[in-house]
């Protein structure tokens, strides 16, 4: 079994994730492909992740890829998370992850509708939900695109309230609107289009998938076939990694992960005592790249690519992650995290290094911070999930 050490694993990141200067991506779609998918829970992440990988990229170029050329599509995928993926890869994510999520979320929503007394029993609530979904989809088709508020005006039953955590301090009675739209989206029937406001907005217009893309997400794939394709893509970008890494990243069961690794004929390697996997032919050392630094946004796909993060995170978890596992803005050098960054009200990019990196690397970091300050041009990005170091750097 070939051994792949920490330094070699770090060395792969610069080239494969398009972060080293000599390995940058040509455009937004190529950048997304390099990391399989871009996290889109926080809309700013998409733009900043692309800008970190595509020289000369700006907000307008990314918006063209998303909303005009539509070579990228925003969809629900791994771990019930919103991602931006290359459009041609959308059917893979749908069949490998989203379809299973849709089944589980429908069951949960019917349970909540039953508890709210929307109908007499679970079967009746399931019928009610299907009826409302079809009415909502019809209303959206007639409009072509619409906001959640516009759709709830067309279909008043979307304003039915749920009773969540009744009797507890955190009880809530939200409208069912977002849950119904989530269900239609995770089934691949509707897609999020342009934001309502700036590129930082998390509110989007909705469109029927068939209207947004000719033929929607394309031909339906078999789940097992799609999982094999997704596992191969993950290993290409993030290998070597453990079975636990892939299982966590994809949101699969242990059995699904094991079958996918077997199907791609993944090769076992020794990761400092742990069994890891690479694709056949990918066991050899990576060709070294030049020294590099990168400022990555909160929830960037690189730090969120593995469950076990110690080999590139070091002892910095407490300052860079929140309590639910979301990472904040990070500073990288040669495949490891060396610090974090944030913005005060002035919009300037501030950083703090968490280890001694030497004068040459610090000079590269200072230049990168200045470049990001220029790129943001006074726009202040506040991550959706805030972490201790980012909060500290954003004060004043």
What brief labels describe this structure?
16 helices; 396 residues; alpha+beta; four-stranded antiparallel beta sheet; globular; single chain; three-stranded mixed beta sheet; 43% helix
Order of helices and strands: EHHEHHEEHHHHEEHHHHEEEHHEEEHH
Q: Order of strands in the sheet with the most strands?
A: 9-10-11-12
| Structure summary, number of beta strands | 12
By DSSP (H or I, 4+ residues per run), the number of helices equals 16
Tell me what the structure shows.
InterPro entries: AlkZ-like. Keywords: DNA-binding. It comes from Kribbella antibiotica. This is Winged helix DNA-binding domain-containing protein. The chain is α+β, with helices and mostly antiparallel strands and 396 residues long. It has a domain at 309-393. It has 16 helices and twelve strands. It has helices at 6-16, 28-34, 43-51, 59-68, 90-115, 122-143, 148-154, 177-186, 209-212, 223-238, 243-250, 254-263, 310-313, 317-320, 359-376, 388-393; strands at residues 2-3, 38-39, 72-76, 82-86, 190-195, 204-208, 267-271, 274-278, 293-296, 330-333, 336-342, 350-353. The strands form four sheets. It has a four-stranded antiparallel beta sheet with strand order 9-10-11-12. It has a three-stranded mixed beta sheet with strand order 1-7-8, with no helix packed on it. A three-stranded antiparallel beta sheet has the order 2-4-3, sandwiched between helices. Strand 7 and strand 8 form a beta hairpin. The mean pLDDT is 96.
């Amino acid at each position: 079994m070939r051994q792949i050490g920490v330094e070699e694993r770090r060395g792969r990141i610069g080239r494969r994730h398009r972060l080293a200067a000599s390995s940058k991506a040509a455009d937004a779609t190529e950048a997304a492909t390099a990391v399989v998918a871009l996290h889109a829970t926080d809309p700013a992440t998409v733009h900043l992740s692309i800008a970190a990988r595509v020289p000369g990229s700006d907000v307008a170029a990314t918006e063209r890829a998303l909303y005009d050329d539509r070579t990228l599509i925003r969809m629900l995928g791994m771990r019930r998370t919103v991602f931006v993926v290359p459009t041609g890869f959308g059917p893979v994510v749908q069949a490998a992850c989203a379809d299973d999520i849709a089944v589980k979320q429908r069951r949960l929503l019917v349970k909540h509708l039953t508890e709210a007394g929307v109908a007499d029993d679970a079967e009746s609530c399931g019928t009610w939900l299907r009826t409302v979904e079809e009415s909502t989809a019809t209303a959206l088709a007639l409009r072509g695109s619409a906001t959640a508020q516009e759709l709830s005006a067309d279909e008043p039953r979307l304003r039915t309230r749920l009773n969540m955590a009744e009797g507890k301090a955190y009880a809530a009675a939200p409208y069912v609107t977002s849950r119904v739209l989530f269900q239609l989206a995770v089934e691949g029937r509707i897609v999020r289009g342009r934001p309502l406001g700036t590129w930082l907005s998390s509110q989007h217009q909705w469109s029927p998938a068939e209207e947004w893309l000719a033929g929607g997400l394309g031909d339906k794939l078999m789940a097992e076939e799609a999982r094999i394709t997704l596992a191969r893509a993950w290993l290409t970008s993030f290998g070597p990694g453990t079975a636990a890494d892939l299982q966590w990243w994809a949101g699969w069961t242990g059995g699904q992960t094991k079958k996918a690794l077997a199907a791609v004929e993944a090769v076992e390697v020794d990761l400092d005592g742990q069994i890891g996997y690479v694709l056949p032919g990918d066991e050899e050392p990576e060709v070294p790249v030049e020294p590099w630094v990168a400022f990555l946004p909160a929830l960037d796909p690189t730090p969120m690519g593995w469950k076990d993060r110690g080999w590139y995170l070091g002892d910095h978890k407490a300052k860079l992650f929140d309590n639910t596992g979301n990472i904040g803005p990070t500073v990288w050098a040669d495949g490891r995290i060396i610090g974090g960054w944030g913005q005060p009200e002035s919009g300037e990019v501030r950083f703090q290094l968490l280890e001694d990196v030497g004068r040459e690397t610090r000079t590269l970091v200072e230049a990168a911070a200045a470049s990001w300050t220029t790129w943001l041009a006074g726009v202040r990005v506040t991550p959706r999930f805030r972490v201790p170091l980012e909060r500290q750097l954003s004060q004043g």
